[in-house]
Protein: ABC transporter ATP-binding protein
Organism: Nocardioides conyzicola
Amino acid sequence: MTAVVAARGLGKQYRRRLGQKKWALRDCSLEIPESRVTGLVGPNGAGKTTLIDLVVGLLAPTVGSIEVCGGVPGAGAAQLAKVGFVAQDTPTYAGLTVAEHLRLGARLNPRWDDAIARGRIERLGLDPGQKAGRLSGGQRAQLALTLGLAKRPELLVLDEPVASLDPLARREFLSALMEAVAEHEISVLLSSHVISDLERVCDHVAVLVDSQIRVAGDVDDVLATHHRLSGPRREPDTLPADLHVVSASHTDRQSTYVVRTTAPILDPAWSVTALSLEDLALAYMERAAAAASPRPELEVLR
């Protein structure tokens, strides 16, 4: 397996106003395979945006290393050309027309493919003379995706690109993304709070909780090794050693566990059910703090 992103012991630390330090990402070791759609899942404050900013070269690590498309993120024009990035606010210039966005993209990107850009704009029915500020949220998102795809990147990074869209616009955006992935065979790293969206499009997943990667792998493999167990109340220290407890809940008489194991579960006292990707992600998120406390403004360490 060739990794389009390879991180080893990656960490990013910020300094608060009063001189205190905070790890936004720590001890992150992760490999994202090429030619796959990888979903990045985690609660607010988990470190997803920090990880993405490190991948695209907007931040430099405090510790550890990261390699993207065989090079150091942000290290020169050739490296920047390998990575496309659509940020959460699907950035476009309100005063520029659709056609002017395409001309700007052509000037800024040495690998620009005008046929891809103009073909997508035509299929989407966007008016080339329309200013971006007068487009709908879904149309602006599609324009931003067009700019990212026409750059002909090896890796396309999307940070919550559908967060502000209604369900229909989300579906149209993700359908367009999957068509583009199939047509151009690019790798995608997609962060989203809407896990049901990720279930439809991702074949690889990484769960980031409390600034650390908790589990990563092909979706089918990850789901095959996680199970929900329900049965008579039992304390965690009485479970077999090969059951790694992800989350647990109890009533007076019953216990419910989400566990990770590669071994068969043979105890007849347990009722064993499969998990969806959303179930799995939520189980890992339950281990994070129940509620995030307000965080002072952060300043990037130099």
In short: The first strand starts at residue 3 and ends at 16. The chain is about 30% helix and 30% strand. The chain has two domains: 3-218, 221-285. The mean pLDDT is 88.
